[in-house]
Each structure stands twice: as structure tokens, then as C-alpha cells.
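Work package 3, deliverable 3.1, input record:
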Amino acid sequence: MAQSGRRDAPELPDFSLLKRLARDQLIYLLEQLPGRKDLFIDADLMSPLDRIANVTTLKQHEVDKLYKVELKPIVSTADQLCFLIRPRIQTVKWISDVVNLDKAAGRLRRYKIIFTPQKFYACEAVLEEQGVFGDVTCDEWAFYLLPLDDDIISLELPEFFRENFLEGDQRWVGAAGGALRLIHSLYGPFSKVYGIGQCAKMVYESWREQVEDGEQKTQQPEIGNVFLIDRDVDFITPLCSQVVYEGLVDDIFRIKCGSVEFGPEVTSSDKSIKVMLNSQDKVFNEIRNEHFSNVFGFLSQKARNLQTAYDKRRGMDIQQMKAFVSEELKGLKQEHRLLSLHIGASECIMKKKTKQDFQELLKTEHSLLEGFEVRECVSFIEEHINRQISMIDSLRLLCLLSLTENGLLPKDYRSLKAQYLQSYGIEHLLTFSNLKQMGLLVEQQPGETLTVMESKVGKLVNDKTAGKLTDAFSSLAKKSNFRALSKRLVLIPKSGEEYDLRVPRDMAYIFSGAYVPLSCKLIEQVLERDGWTGLEEITRMLNGHEFAVSGGANGTESRIKADSQRIVLVMFLGGCTYSEISALRFLGRERGYKFIVVTTAITNSGRLLEALLDNHP
Amino acid sequence: MAFVTANWNPLGEAFYRKTELYEMGWNLKDGLRDCLLAAAPYGGPIALLKEPQRRSPSSRPQLEIYSASGVTMASFLWKSGVVRQLGWTVCDDLLCIQEDGTVLIYDLFGSFKRHFSMGNEVGQSQVVEAKVFHSPYGTGVAIVTGASRFTLATNIDDLKLRRLPEVPGLQGAPTCWAVLTQDRQSKVLVANGGDLFILDYTACTAVNPPGLSPQASSIVHMCVSFSYKYLALFTDSGHVWMGSANLKEKLSEVETKVRNPPKQMAWCRRPKSRQPSVVIMWDRHLLVVGEGKDTISYHLEDDSILVPEMDGVRIINGTNHELLQEVPASCEEIFKIASMAPGALLLEAHKEYEKESQKADEYLREIKEQGLLAEAVRQCVEAAGHEQEAETQKTLLRAASFGKCFLSNFPPELFVIMCRDLRVLNAVRDYTVGIPLTHTQFKQMTVQVLIDRLVYRKLYPLAIEICRYLKTPEYQGVSRVLKHWACCKVQQKEESDEVIARTISLKLGEAAGISYSEIATKAYECGRTELAIKLLEFEPRSGEQVPLLLKMKRSQLALSKAIESGDTDLVYTVVTYLKNEMNRGDFFMTLRNQPVALSLYRQFCKHQEQDTLKDLFNQDDDHQELGNFYVKASYKEKRLEARVAHLQSAVDEYNKAKNEFAAKATEEEMRLLRFQKKLEEEKAIEPLAIAVRMHTEIQGITIGVTEHCISLFADDIIFFLSKLKTSIPNLITLIEKFGRFSGYKINNSKSVLIDMEGAADAAIERRNEGEISTILSRCSPTTDRALVERLNRAKSTAAKK
């Protein structure tokens, strides 16, 4: 299927520039503190940093030892300490403690904090409060964007999701705006910006403001359209089990910053192997977007091809053999290695996923999405909880039930919650409170049918004078209207028809043909209609906040380079899944677009829900 | 026009001319006698302090500020200490350096701006001499004290006082000294008699000017050129030595035949000038000295001062203001008598053309034949720039434009720009404005600075006209002027806030790049808070309004503006400010109305101030969140009681929040916790018992089918063991292992080891039948046969009794 669709897709811009920029800036910052120094790095910056500047590069710039920030007293003999951290109050407080300890011990050192991507006033306030403001120098490393692949750029800000959508803390909006500005200045100007969601709107405004402040320059645009989307527009897609290869690998092995660590059960040796998963890996590149049921067939085909390639050497004369060894063998060996890894991974996935449990889980998910046999689903969930199969999966099913059914019946709500608490612990009381606040797991308001709710919500949202919605109302407004939406957007393909996963018809193939991801469908619709016209009903159900803005007046100019018009940058605020990326790649092939996915972080159902847990003491 | 060369004087190869700029508008009784005077370069203002030595309070000296044409700009009585030196900064502020080392700064209109000191040690020794100098880093001040120490500040806006090292052998004031700027550092050049020293921040180095005539025993005067590249020394033998300022090269040495020390000396050069020359002034005598032997000598009618400029020297006396400069090459070529330069011919051709004579064609032909017409036009345009007289300028420009007609590809910019520049220059040279800039100076100074200067003089309409005429981008031009105008306007106390706000908004309108917040800040500084608020409303960028609003204590407004701006850092700034300013209740109430600020503050409290967080929820009656808060707090508690107490509070809060489910769940949790604890406390021994029973290496005593191993009592335990060699060590390790968790250990003093035989012996001795039977009943086939027999025997004996 990889080769179907339009062939005239435009070339993607070169994003390695972003890496170079970030590296140069980091080196510059490190040189601001001349001499040998120890570098402390925030744990979650380790892998991104590795992609930007490896240890040798750091050592070249007089970094002596590297430490992970562990919020414990430090053991370092260096006279200069450099901290490379995210602007978190906790970390800054720890640094203050380190400085104060040194002071008490009469030890003189130089300290430098590099905040990335930006520093916050709150952090400086902590330094001030702890009385060490004058002892440290602060800098900002504007490392906004990390290209994970040719078409995936990540901000590597997993906390964006929780802080923005749960805690209502908008401090990352500026960073997202800054990231957009960086892309705009390097690959813009954009001719059209679409968006949906409150946060998307704020990011857009923040970006506009930053652009206005800076100087304007005109260049050939490499990216034409931009689509901003909030994660809370579509929670259903990331909550579904992923069945596309890349998504599955992420679900099971957790892809971290574009690379994955395959354990002994995959490598069939006693060592773990770290593998970069991107388009450079030829085998992976061909199977990443495939439905898992096709992967094995593909891999065995590949193995056969490999065998024939190896077999070629039989009956070769010396000369040919020499050429074979020098030219092909290395590539074949490499391919061989990768192939065996992916086969190992697939086997491991198969072992886990072909169990009866998983099949039933999928069936339940699909029934939930279609809205059939809900009672059976509820009892399945009950059983799932009581058997304590998986804390996250149980929660995921509960949320899916609530989202698709527009809230749980009061009776179910209470009993399921009680059973969950008894199975997995009382601490989840707080988790439930979070989920309720997010509108992920709510109780149906008694006596209200869907339509009544709909109109009420619509009225609330449209009524501008209402202005501030109280908590109760906003939780009402957060109600998902999944049924109505899926009907209008035809998210659920007609059941009963055979869906050939080898030859996908639409984006639903990423969920075995059961569901077209809402987020991707929206993008498709908006690009098709060149705006939100005709989608008013839908945006109303999604709580509005949609916008479509044509970029600068030079619309005619950008039309000349039509190629850039078919490059669409999609920015997910709050994270996106590999399945969604696969769906967009499919959409791009069908419609002759190229999608570039910018996301605050790669997410999946596990990460999404873990961010909302509050069970850790 | 015909006599352009009338005021030219030859000196070596070049000509010098002295042109009158203004007849001074001031009316000074005694001319410049007994005055302290400072004139700013680039045709800047003149400050005049009459009789600066007067100290008595009854007759204080008068400080007056004039434009370069002598129009009064300010005048006031000097009430501070004795002034040693006056000087102007690059942004037209007046510096008054007092004897005690204090430097007072006034603006052009004589209003006091600020003051600073040149160091504490100056107080006693007093400033003997002071100099104000300009460098790329701004305006600097150098002083020498009575104790012969120099102190230097390179930039008065970023004051860093440098006390320079001592000069060996210097007592009192040096003979003469000057400030140099070299290698990005300001240095002082000091002459003490015949010795010359360079003082930098770290060292005092003796230097020797190369080729200084041996007759000289002392250097009595020195001056540095405008660009700090050249140095001139005047010796007591009447010689003038000229050379490079780094003292590596000598340009020339000329004998003046005057041995008196001069009153003032100044370099008279221009960029690309033909020869170095110095203007030396004595009481009534002015001498221009160049490379060669010959000099030009002028007689002075009155006390004068010299103002060095980059392309000449201005001479100011009681009645006149003149400019002395080397005649620029282009002017010389055109106007020199019998010049055959292309420019001269073109001018001639144009003259003939005006007269409608055919000679015009002849001249033109002559130029064209040499192919020099373009050069001729260029010369005329350039010369026009160097002329002061509007008529001469016009004639030259007309000639240039006439010549241009015969050229096909001549770029027009040169001519157009010169016309524009001259129009601007003539406007500012006007008597009422009084900025006698030459074209060279204007180019060096740039339009921006000229606009600034006009703004400092409050000549807003002229400044705006110039901006518009030169088509300066709004942001740098008109908007900037308007901003200054508005800042000035808000200081007008007599007008009402309403009127001023309206006028300003009317005039500024939608002009690009206007920062209303800056104007408002100014208004606030003048104590007009109401006006400031009115003005802030015009500010389109809400972020800009916040700092000022905070300063004005309009914190509520500041908070909402900060939120509007979408900048969380700004919001946070306001929140911290509010936290310190307000009492807690008000603070929380304020936050409550601003959800964005509230959630931001909550985030902060979560990490820093847990208790505040609780108060915050309390204030809001947010029982649900309070409940959650207590649940979270309970995790942190190790002790059961504290934990349960927290959970109980949580239950109360959940009940208040009408969240029965949560309340019930929490209650269950409490019960669970208590029950668990009970189990732990009461039955902690149970696991040990199980472990003992299950242990394969601990052999109990088997009676019948059951193996007895352990008996648990309220406060002690009995073990029944056999195969003691393996059982006892295993039991002890097991007890120790469990003891680590539970804290139980063997109480050695109270523990007794009872062996079966011992028990039997004791019973036999006492001859107690019951006891013996009991022991017998405990015996198993594994028990020692001999013992059983003994017991049986003892039993029968006891029974017999």
C-alpha cells in the first residue's frame, strides 16, 4: 500500500537546521562559563540532549563530568557547576539548596543555570527567596524543537498536557508560540493558519505577537499551511489501543525520543539494544505505518528477499564476489540485523497481543466506539477491574466509556469507581477527581438526553455575555458529543463490510477499520474546505474556539510556489500518538499533501493517563 | 559671489578661510572676560558662567545658556559651590564640575537633572583642573586634584571612577594635560615641565615625543585633535610640535617666535585635509601653523575662545561667531583664481548660459572633450555642500544641474541628496535655531542625532518637518519626535489632565511605534497619576502597561492587563507583587476573580507553600479541592494517627462538598488503615509462627499424627523442638530475620530452655503421679526408651504410695 496515492507529493523542508541551531547555541552558552565544569542535566533532557550534542561534543567544551539531576545532595569536586534544566520550581529549589550547602561549608564555586527552552520569573523568584540570586548566573537555551524524524518535530514538553489542560497553567503557551515563531522564521511565511481549541488560539496569538515584535523578512515559503489543534478536542483517539506497528512498539516498549530499547526478550540474547526508529531504518520505514496484521507477512517477504540477495553469491566468480562483498554485503548485513530485531519485536508483540484478553479488549473498544452492546462492555470493564489486569488499561476503558457515552450512568459511575478504588487503591480518588475535571470520566446528568445537553452546551458556549463559566457549567461544556460527531463526520465506517487492511480505504485502517481518528478527520475536512465553513455544527459540539487566518497580504506570492501550499504543519498541543501520525501520512499520500507533525510530546494512552494520576505519595 | 576667495589665506599648499557664522545675539557687557565658557561641538549650545570665583551669598554668579547664535535659552543664579569647569555631554546636557568634585547635570533649559561625585578623596584636596571629553563610549570627565592625582570617568552615564596612578615628581597642578582615547581606553597625557607622561589605568609611563627641538625645556600647552589621532605640543621656546597622538611619528615642528604660553590651542583639520595645522590663540592674536615655515596670523579684537570641530575651529567672541577651516578641495578647485578644473569651467559655462552667451557651449565642449563632465558635476555638488552662503550654494547647484543635462547616465541620488541635506542644514543654521552644522559634521552626526538635538531644544515642529522632508521611517522619525513632545506636554502643569490626554491622543493618533506607556511613565514621574492612567488606556500592548500600573499601585488593573497580555511571567510578577502588598484576604479575593492568575499561583504554592494552598481553597469554600488536598497530605504522613486525622478532615470536606462517594471511599480507607494496623500489631507474631511451622529444617515434636512446633500465648511462646542441632540455629536465624521487621527479639534473661529429660527428672523427684503421666503422654516413639522406662517406674512407685 505504501506506494498508492498521489506521487507528486512535495519535498519536506530540511529540519536538521533546527538541530544545528540548538547545538551552536548550547556550545555558545557553555563557553560563557570558561574552564572545566561539571554539567547537571535534568533527567528528561538527557535523551533530547543526546540527539543534539553527544558526550564528545560536550567534553570538547570543557564539560568534565555529566550528572543527572536527582534532587539529592551532590558529590562533585569541580569549581564550576552548570545546570541544564527545565524551568521547574522543584529543580531550582534543589539548586538553591546546593548553593546554600556550599556556602555553609565555605566552598566557593561558580554556578550557572541554563533554562530551556526559557526561564520563568517564578524560578528566579525562588532563587531570590532562597537568597542565592546573586550567586548564580542564569541563561536561556532556546531549544524549542527537536526533529525526531523527517516529518516529526517534538517540543519534548510532556508536562504541557497536564499543566495546561488540568492545572490551567498557561505558562507553556509562550514556549509553543516561540516554537512556532522559530519555524515561521526559518520555513515560513505561512499563508494560512487554521486551529481549534482554546490553547491553540492562545498559541496563535502569542506567535502573532512575537512575530510583530521581530523584524519581518520575506523568503520563499517552505511550509504553506499550519493547523493547530488542542489535545482536548479529541481525547478518544489517543485512548484507543494502537494497532499500527509504530504505535504498538510505542505502547509496548515505549519509544523515547525517537529511539527504543529492545530488551532481551526481543534481541534473544541477554543484552538490551537501543535502536533509533526513524526513516533511516529501511525496514522500519516500510512497516511503521502498517496495520500489525500485515507486518509479519511483510517481514517474511523481506526475509525471503534478503535470502535471495544472499543467495546471489552462489555461482559468483571471484570478481563478482569481490564487488558483492564491498558493495552490497554491508547493506545486507545491516538490513539483516534490523530485520531480525523487528521480527523479534513483532514476536514479542504477538505474544502479548494475540492473547484472548487483548482480542476482547479490542472488541470492547470497538463496541464502545460504535455504541453497540454497551452493557456487555460495562461488564467487561468490571471484570477487567476486578481481575486487576492493568491499572492504566482499566482507567482507559472507563474513560472511553464515559467519552463515547457522554458520561456514565450514575449507577455505573458509582459502582465502577468503587470497584476501581478497591482494586487499585484509594489514591485513585484524586485521579478520578482529575479525570472529572478534564471531562474524561464524568457522570451523566440524570434526566437529560443528548439533544438537550447539546443545545444547552451550545447556548452556553455561544452566549458571550456569560463570559465566565462556573466550574459546574464548564464541566458540562466539556461533555463529549462523540455520538453526534461520529455520525456527522462518519467516523465509524459501516460495520459488517469487510475491511481489507492490506488495501486501506481511509484513515480508519489504523484502528483496524473501526474508527477514523477525529483529530485527523477534522484536519482533512478543514483542508478540503479551506476553512471551517460548513463545519459550524461540529465546532459547536467541540466547544468552538476555531479559527482560520490567512497569513500576510502576500497571498499571491505564495501561490506561485504551489508546492509549499501542499506542505501542512500540524501542531498538536498536548501531544499526539504515532497512530495519528500514521493516519496523517496516509492522508498525505491520498491527497498529495505532506504533513509535518509538531507536537509538545509524543503520547499514547499510557502516558496520557499517567500524567493525570495522582497516586504517588 | 565674486569675492568667494576674499577671505582665503594661503598656508603651504592649502588655503584657509574664516567665515562669519553669526553676529551673536547676546548682549554681554564685558565680552567674554572673566567668564567660564563651554561650547558643545557640532554647533551645540554655549554655557556661560560669569565671574565663577564669586562665593559670597549676596552676589552669586549667573549661569546662562545660549544657542550657538547667542539666543538665550536659560539663565539662572548659580547657588552651588565654586565651578571649576563647564562641559556638554553628547546628549546636550550641561556638566558643572565643582571644586569639591561634585558634578551637577543640567539640561539645555537649566533644569537640574542629577549629580554625581568624582570620589570622596577629592573633598579635601579639591579639584584643580577638570576636562570633559567625548569618546565612543559617551561623555567622560577627568579631574586632577590638588594632591596631583588624576581621576577619570569614561562614561558618566555608566559611572566607573578610575583613580590613575601617581605621576612621579608632580607637585600641585601639572603644566598642562590632555585626555586621549586610545586602544579602547581613555588615558591622560601629562606634562610636568619638560617631562611627558602617559597615564593609563594601571601605569604611568614616561614618553618622549620624537624630534622635539632641544631648546625646549618645558611643554606649556598641548592639544589633541578631534579624532584623538594627533597631538600638538607648545614649548616654552615658542616651538609647536605636531605629531601622532601615539607619539610615534612627528609631522612637523614650527617656530612661532612667541614665547608666552598660549591661551588656547586647537587642531584645525578636516577629513582628507591636505596638511595638519594647529590654531594657537593668545590674548589678541591668532596663529594658524601648518607644516611649512609660513603661518597665517589674525588679529583678535576681543577675548575669544576656540571650539574645535571635526572639520575646523569655531571662534566665538563677545560679538561674533566665526568658522576657521581649511578650504575643501572641491571649493578650492572651483573658486581658485584662474582654475581650469572641470568644476570651475562648468560654473563658468553656466554663468555664460545665464547671460545667454554662446561661450557657454565653448566651456562645455572643453569639459566634454576631456570627458570630465561627470567629475565637474560632482565637484559642483560637493562644493555646494561646503558653502555656508545660500546664494553660493544655489549657484553651484544650478551649475551642477545644468551640467547634468548633458550627461546621460549620471546617477541622480548625489544631487538630490545634497539638495535635501542643504535644505535641512540651512533650516537649522537659521539664526533662531542656531545650529551651525557643516555638511561634513551633519553626515558624521546623522539625521537621527540631529533630530534628537532639535527635540532636546523642544523644536518639535521643525524636527517633524525635517523627518517628513527626509522621509525618515516613522518609527525613527516622526513617532519619536511625537513621543518626546508628549513627554514634554505632560509636564505642563497648567493644563488639565483631560485636555492633555485628549491633545496627545489626537496628535499621536495611530502613529506607528508610539509607546504610550513611556509617556505615561513620564506623567507619573511628574506626579500626574490620573493622567498616566488615561494615557495608558491608549497603549495597545497590554504587557507594556503592567510595570507602570504596578508602580502606580493600580495592582488590580495591572493584573487584568497582565493576563490580557498572555505572558505568564508578567502575571506572576504581578501576583508576587500583590502578595507582598495586600493582606491575605484581599489577595485571595483578587486571585479568585482571575482564574489564570489563580492557577499560576496554585502551581507555585504546590511546590513552595502548601499551607497557603489550603488557605486558598478555604477562602474559596472549595471543599472538593480541600478534600483532595488532605488526601494528598495524608500520603506524606508516616504515623497512622496523623494519617487518619488528615483523612478525617478529608471526609469532612467531602461531605461539605456533597461528594458522598468520595467521603465514603475515604472512610473505608480509614477503616482499612486501622484494621491493617490492628493486624500488624496483634498478629505480627502469626507470620513468624507460620514460618516456623513451614520450615523444613526446624523439627517439632510429633505426637500422633500432628507435629507440634510452637505454642503462642498472650505474652510468650513455647517452641517444641527435636533434632536440636539443626533446629535451634535455624530457629534463631528465623527469629532474627522476623525481628528486623517487627522489632521482636528473644528476651534472654527470661527465656528458659526446658529439655524433656530435665522435666522428667523433676517430676520423678517430686513423685507427682499426675505430672509424670502428663509427661508420659507427651512421649512419642522417638523419645528415649530409657527415659520412658524410668518414668513408668516412677509412676508405679508414686501410685503405690
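The CA atoms of residues 700 and 721 of chain B lie 4 Å apart.
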